[in-house]
Amino acid sequence: LTEAKTAIAEAQAETVTESTDKLFGTQKGKNLIVIQLEAFQNFPINLSLNNTEVTPVLNNLAKDGYYFPHIFQQIGQGNTSDAEFMSNTSIYPTGTIAMSTGYGDRDIPSLPKLLEKQGYEADTFHVNDVTFWDRIKLYPALGFTHFFDKPFYKNDNFNTLGASDEELYRVGLEKITAISKQNKPFYAQFITLSSHHPFKIPVENQNKALRDSLTRSQLGDYLLAINYTDYALGVFIDGLKKAGLWENTVLVVYGDHFGLQPKENTNTAEAIYKAIGVKYHPDISRFNIPLFIHAPNLQKGEVINQVGGQMDIMPTISNLLGISLKEENFVHFGQDLMNIKKNVFGMRYYLPTGSFFNDDIMFVPGKGFADGKATSLTTLEPVTDFSMYKDDYDYVLNQMKLSDDYVNMLPKR
Ligand code: GP9
């Protein structure tokens, strides 16, 4: 393991590592709330239909903190649970098995473990049964102190999988308020579910102005569900303010993966453009998720255009909380988005292995690099000469191999 750690550090040093320490420790000792939003793509952010914002709460959060519009999903077979895995570990999912199922018997270095060393309690909240996606293995492997699953929530029959996001946050707020009364900092992760496919939410929870502007289609149902997810988050934020927790908490919000299903939407890109005027690329826009970071003493309203992936969330949080991953000798395949020089990261399972994003393009290989396809992240148009990105392709393949070797070396619990 020690040799593997050295090899990984050496491989990363030349390409991505940046030694600046912008914002390091500015949030030291603060509570941390990380909210992973179900099936939440980036395109509804700042979108208005019928003079109604689809995501007013998140739009306000962007005005009051940092908004990262160029973040991409990196999940493998474990979908939602792989996103939870990455935001707590900064390790690549192998793509061949859900990380919870394949590696839930390991002792996995993680954000909860780093924070517990600093006196935090780390809890996670989700309204579905904890056996789903083998979270019953994943949560102990990641070292969460407690998990709160289905039996902890009143079933308001929001959808077939469980209670509403409002109920998720109601219970969560109660628990984190109790922790903070013991004068302990907390890390709470919330995995929302109200915007799960097929995106049919109860009529009483639908925003009428939005509904009237949308035709009955998967896109229409999706935007109504997204709007509810955003609304419930707003109720939670109000609750945090009333409980006196807002001023002492870092809030991180991001999407777990795409929502709109290509199979169920013929000509998705054209249909979306026609219905809501959004330019939509079938891969880039589909895999593009939003990320927000809010803390009371951070700069307001900054849009950070740095390209990133889900593995970057954990190093970015660690920097703000004053945890040096270098000093901790903590292996991470993502980077701190506040201090990065250049980003390049891979994606597999939903795209062929060897696909990657860097600061300029999305690349999808053919049989190899030379017959691959590159698309500009700015114009969403093809890039014909991409030969200068060959090093990035080799780098990503090597990083994924190192990551797989590393995770396979982790000791059993
Ligand atoms: C269920 C939820 C859904 O608990 O996490 O997972 P998904 O189907 O989106 O991967």
TrEMBL record:
This chain belongs to which protein, by name? Answer: LTA synthase family protein
Record pathway: Cell wall biogenesis; lipoteichoic acid biosynthesis
| Gene Ontology molecular function terms on file | metal ion binding
> Which species does this protein come from?
Paenibacillus psychroresistens
User: Could you say which residues bind substrate here?
Assistant: H196
Range covered out of full length: 189 to 601 of 601
Annotated compartments: Cell membrane
- Indicate the family of this protein: Belongs to the LTA synthase family.
Active site location: T80
This protein's source sits in the domain of life called Bacteria
Q: Provide a GO CC annotation, any one.
A: plasma membrane
Q: Which UniProt keywords apply?
A: Cell membrane, Manganese, Membrane, Metal-binding, Transmembrane, Transmembrane helix
Does this entry carry the keyword Signal? no
Give the principal location in a single coarse category: membrane
Any idea where the Sulfatase N-terminal domain is?
30-323
Residues at which Mn(2+) binds: E38, T80, D256, H257
How does the protein's chain sit in the membrane according to the entry? Answer: Multi-pass membrane protein
